[in-house]
Amino acid sequence: MKKYKKIYIEITNQCNLSCSFCQVTNRTIWSMSFDEFDYILNQISPYTDYIYLHIKGEPLLHDRLLDFIALLAQKKLTVIITTNGTLIHNYPELITYSNIRQINFSLHSLLELPDAIFQKSLDTITAFIKNAQKKTNIFFALRFWNLNINKSITSDENLSIIHQLIRDFNPSEDCIEKITHSINSKLSDKVFIHFDSVFDWPDIDSTYNQTTGFCYGLRDQIGILSDGTVVPCCLDGEGVINLGNIFKSDFQTIIDSDRATSIVNGFSNNKAVENLCIKCSFKKRF
Fold first, then answer.
1. Which residues pair with 142 in a beta bridge?
2. How far is the C-alpha of 38 from the C-alpha of 124, rounded, in Å?
3. Contacts (Cβ under 8 Å, ≥6 apart) of 283
4. Predicted TM-score (pTM) of this structure
5. Which of 85, 146, 228, 266 has its CA 20 to 30 A from that of 116?
6. Nearest-CA neighbor of 250 among 230, 265, 270?
7. 6/50 Cα distance (integer angstroms)
8. Are 131 and 184 in contact (CB under 8 A)?
9. Nearest 10 degrees: CA dihedral of 7, 98, 137, 53?
10. 3-state secondary structure of 8
């Protein structure tokens, strides 16, 4: 049986922010019901040990989030959450769930907020992490995915967050040297800074056009959108490569389909066969 390193589940495609770097969705706003989420887990649990609550949307907006995490624990599935962090104050209970392996905070999301909201959100995130450090084994990744092509820090705003993180977590001199030069580093116990360059969401109308390349979609990962649409990877946030709907076809049938097989075989031969994959510049990173 095929095992994926991770399966992305988009429990909602609704977000409380409108960041300029995030692709605007044309899909109907939808949040999974508990029964839908349970059905999906029953379908996919033999295929992975790791569930990522992320594609589009803000998972902390879902009013059944804690129930979902508890259900994942019942099914012995480990969860990784990606969030902008602005709602983390609503979820102090997250640190009580032993099946949460990691929480990723997209700190670049905060930079477009008004100053007062920005500062309150950053303070809340750091307070949450410092409390969790004492009580859990959860890992935290603080993401700055907004660097330029040379991977240098692009704004004073980035530096303002970094300087506050240095004050709050008091890292070693070696760590300070690394993070002020945009180098991934351990900030504190179980807390890591992660830098990466800006990427373009794949778009059928993009001028980028490259048929050669490789991708881990359908090889190491696969995604399920909030309406049940199965997609090859976490960057197909619009469901352009619709492999089938998990509420209408069983998961094994979907991943065994001719279209899915063609994608995998194509990338095995360093070739993108889907139009969206041809237009995706992210594959250059592999």
1. 105, 193
2. 31
3. 210, 213, 214, 215, 272, 277
4. 0.95
5. 146
6. 230
7. 5
8. no
9. 30
10. strand
Where is 230: in which H helix or E strand? strand 230-231
Look at residue 156 and give its three-state secondary structure: helix
Please, are residues 228 and 245 in contact by the beta-carbon 8 Å criterion? Answer: yes
Locate the DSSP E strands across 76-229: 78-83, 100-106, 139-147, 185-188, 191-197, 221-224
- Token pair, residue 179, equals 């993070």
Rounded distance between C-alpha atoms, residue 131 and residue 95, angstroms: 9
Fill in the amino acid letter for 277.
Answer: C
Place of tokens 């993180």: 165
Spatial contact of 198 and 146, defined as CB atoms under 8 Å apart: yes
Q: What is the chain's pLDDT, residue by residue, as a tens digit (286 residues)?
A: 889 999 999 999 999 999 888 888 889 999 999 999 999 999 999 999 999 999 999 999 999 999 999 999 999 999 999 999 999 999 999 999 999 999 999 999 998 899 899 999 999 999 999 999 999 999 999 999 988 765 555 566 788 899 999 999 999 999 999 988 888 999 999 999 999 888 889 999 999 999 999 999 999 999 999 999 999 999 999 999 999 999 999 999 999 999 999 999 999 999 999 999 999 999 988 8
Q: Tell me how far apart the alpha carbons of residues 1 and 3 are, in angstroms, rounded to a whole number.
A: 6
Please give the Cα distance from 48 to 140 (Å, whole number): 22
